[in-house]
């Protein structure tokens, strides 16, 4: 399946309309990404293991202030359901995304979460990179790698490495 997506993506890159770049100044961006249950995020995930179910739903949006540079913000809502009780998580993200050569997205952002009834909440500084496969003028698939550095040592002092797949709309 990954090979099929790669072949489809590479052929779609060659079919791009270079006269109206998706990442041009003044355009808007809406993203949905896969997520990671270990930190607050604005992505999508569902995980069940040993009677514990975790879920999240969220989106990011951005505006291209200059060609290839979008300022972004995102919101997410999720929770954990377990035998010992349920909790909810509200997540937020703010940062920027720069497209090198209009197709290699580099992100830098601050991500945090507010966990119901928690004494400490996580906050992360994240950096990521990937590749944007444009499927026409308004859609891209963006697989990527991301590293999140914990800014709250009372919550955790460990960093988190992620492999994500993002889907973006441009208008």
TrEMBL record:
What's this protein's name? Outer membrane protein beta-barrel domain-containing protein
The record's InterPro entries line, in alphabetical order, gives: OMP/PagP_B-barrel (IPR011250)
């Amino acid at each position: 399946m990954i090979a099929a997506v790669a072949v489809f993506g590479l052929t779609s890159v060659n079919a791009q309309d270079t006269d109206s770049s998706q990442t041009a100044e003044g355009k808007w961006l809406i993203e949905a990404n896969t997520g990671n249950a270990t930190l607050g995020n604005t992505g999508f995930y569902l995980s069940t293991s040993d009677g514990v179910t975790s879920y999240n739903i969220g989106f990011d949006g951005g505006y291209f202030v200059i060609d290839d540079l979008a300022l972004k913000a995102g919101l997410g809502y999720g929770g954990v359901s377990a035998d010992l009780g349920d909790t909810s998580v509200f997540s937020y993200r703010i940062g920027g995304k720069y497209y090198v050569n209009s197709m290699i997205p580099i992100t830098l952002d601050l991500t945090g979460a507010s966990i119901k009834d928690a004494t400490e909440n996580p906050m992360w500084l994240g950096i990521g990179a990937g590749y944007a496969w444009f499927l026409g003028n308004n859609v891209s698939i963006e697989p990527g790698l991301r590293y999140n550095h914990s800014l709250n040592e009372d919550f955790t002092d460990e960093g988190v490495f992620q492999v994500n797949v993002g889907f973006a709309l441009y208008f």
